[in-house]
Amino acid sequence: MTTEYRVKLIQQGNIQTLSIPEELTLSTSEVIIRQEDGKLIIEPYKKKSLLEVFANLDDIDEDFPDVDEGLLPLDDIEL
């Protein structure tokens, strides 16, 4: 069973705000808000880890240039 709360929207110029009841307080200072089927959905914002970002990148089909071309092998360099 879902608990429902009736809250008032506060209009300040072009911005609407609402007070979230203490029982529904999120443990974050940033959220994602979107509208679906006439409903507002508010979710905690979670930064993606670097691995998650890389996992969602498209494969690269380009050949990378050989940046070491023309350089001596490390073993042949004398100081």
Structural notes for this entry:
With 79 residues, the chain is mainly beta. The mean pLDDT is 88. Helix content is 8%, strand content 25%. 0% of the residues are buried. It is built from one helix and four strands, in the order E-E-E-E-H. The protein has a domain at 29-57.
Secondary structure elements and pairings:
Layout: E1 9-12, E2 15-18, E3 31-36, E4 39-44, H1 50-55
Antiparallel strand pairs: 1-2, 3-4
Structural class of the secondary elements? mainly beta
- How far apart the termini lie comes to 75 Å
Provide the helix percentage.
under 10%
Q: Uncertain regions: pLDDT < 50 for 5+ in a row?
A: none
Strand portion, in percent?
25-35%
Features of this protein?
79 residues; mainly beta; two-stranded antiparallel sheet; 4 strands; 8% helix
Condensed summary:
This protein is mostly beta strands and 79 residues long.
